[in-house]
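Kindly inspect the following:
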Amino acid sequence: MTSMSKADTTRMNILNKAFLLIYMNGYQATSIDEIIATTQVTKGALYYHFKNKDDMGLSIIKEVMYPILYSSTIQPLARAEKPQLEIYKIMRNLLNDEKFFNVQYGCPFVNLVEEMAPHNTSFSNALKRLVVDWKEAIECCIEEGKKQGLIRDNVNGGQVAIFVLSGYSGIRNLGKILGRPCYNAYLKQLKSYLQSLN
């Protein structure tokens, strides 16, 4: 495995620190000057790596957010032996993950969808890729469960995926106001719903 060059290391440092700033403050409220101050790079260095703020924001989605969500949501579904249990575990792990997610700030992905998707086509398309890939992974998992006789034949995988994803999005936002206890209520009902697919 080759180590990252100094330029690549600087670039990822900018992306990771900018990601945290945007997560806490919102994309539009986070200025280039704040990012420069936090990353301790010069304006010239920032613009060496990114054409503008939107270029950096799109790179955050593709290079920081997507890998996190892919490894924590899509990969586990691809090798799930018990689809309902795996979907539940993924949601439980996401909601209990305090390394990348903070109850107070919700989900960085959901936040960006709400803030940027209606106003910026490039952001909408980048964020859509995350949604579509996750949705399709849930659908495939459900269909595999049907083949194995673990899920009823009349269950619609696409509808399950939309229900699960919209529930996740909603509970992340409620958590900003109601705190972590509402996560437990959501997970309890999610488990009951998934068990009803047998």
